[in-house]
Write a structure and sequence with these properties.
Blueprint: H1 2-57, H2 60-69
Main location: membrane
Function: Essential cell division protein. May link together the upstream cell division proteins, which are predominantly cytoplasmic, with the downstream cell division proteins, which are predominantly periplasmic.
Coiled coil: 26-53
């Protein structure tokens, strides 16, 4: 009878240790899941912010400003436009 009691005591202790270990692993996995979800939300926010910045960078006004400042481009005006004429004189007839 003493052997049976010891065997049952060992079985109860082993199952208690297994239960504690399982609960610890469960909490650990839940914490990792929570961190992953927070990181996913942060990445989604960053993606939206970058999309807004991308749209802001591609506005026609910004492109025109960059063309004027960095490339020293000017708007086409009749004063700086050079017209090329056809040497054969058939430019008007070809239309």
């Amino acid at each position: 009878m003493l052997r049976l009691n010891l065997l049952l005591l060992l079985a109860v202790m082993a199952s208690a240790i297994f239960l504690v270990h399982t609960q610890y692993e469960s909490r650990k996995l839940f914490t990792e899941l929570d961190r992953a979800e927070a990181q996913a939300r942060q990445l989604a926010t960053d993606q939206q912010r970058l999309q807004v910045e991308k749209r802001a960078q591609a506005t026609p006004q910004r492109i025109e400003t960059l063309a004027r400042e960095r490339l020293q481009m000017k708007s086409a005006t009749p004063a700086i436009t050079q017209y090329v004429q056809d040497g054969s004189g058939t430019a008007g007839a070809a239309r």
